Amino acid sequence: VHLSIHDIPFCFHVSSEAIIQELFEHYPVSWFERPESERAKSIPIFWVDSRDVGFTDEEWENEESPECSIAHSSTGQVATHRDFAAHFDGATCLLVCPYAVQDGFFNFLRWFAPTEFLKRGLLLFHSSCVIDAEKNAYFCFGPSGAGKSTIASLRTRSKVLGDDMNVIAIRGGVCWAQAGALGQAMLNPGEYGRWYPVRQIYWLQKGAELQITPLSSATQLRYLATAVANVFWQNLTEQQTLQIFSKIQQINQLTPLAELKFPIQKGLWELIFAHDSRRSDDL
Known about the structure:
- The strands form two sheets. Strands 8, 9, 10, 11, 12, 13, 14, 15 and 16 form a nine-stranded mixed sheet that branches.
- The chain is built from eight helices and 16 strands.
- It is of the alpha+beta class.
- The longest helix is centred in the middle third of the chain and has 17 residues, at 103-119.
């Protein structure tokens, strides 16, 4: 099955018609219809159902740690998680997880995709992202529990790009946002693959009233770095680490990050958009 996820060309080798159908039901048809020139560059993923190699579902889910463990050997990189195991030698990948477009498959993608994103100038962020009436994207970062999903829920559902993971690319001197297709619930499946210009980035804090505060450059960069998702810093090469910091600096120069304290109330986003418009008028 040839499938391009965020322009990463995969060729999944499977032994089940059911999983092929499930992939087609989950992803847009256009992500399967890729030119032959791209298919020739596809990364082969030999996907084996964990049940076919002796694991029961109960045994597979026995691992309590939510962390992905990564090791390097003379033959490549090995990743093990509570719901998948994989080996990548730089050319082909062996994936062992249940045949289902669910957590094991998505956690594999979250391990595999971010370093491939780097090659394409993309970064994946733990974030929520909403769209205004002019089709501009507003990113919200923050630590666990800061309210990323909560603040997205205060926007009309049809205007939420993603409430867990979103991608940023820089093209033509503009930051662009795309919903991360790596396991988050897609509130609007029609948004798969669409890009929106990023208007503003916020670092979230819950508060009694709306308050938007500028941050120092050093704080902005630190917050951006903490929001980068699934790059497994300790396993990166020096070149990959420098790539990430270079991309973060570019994002910060194009779209500064501000602290946003917010109350949970209806009409919050209209207040945020109005504040942003006044700020732009002042500039």
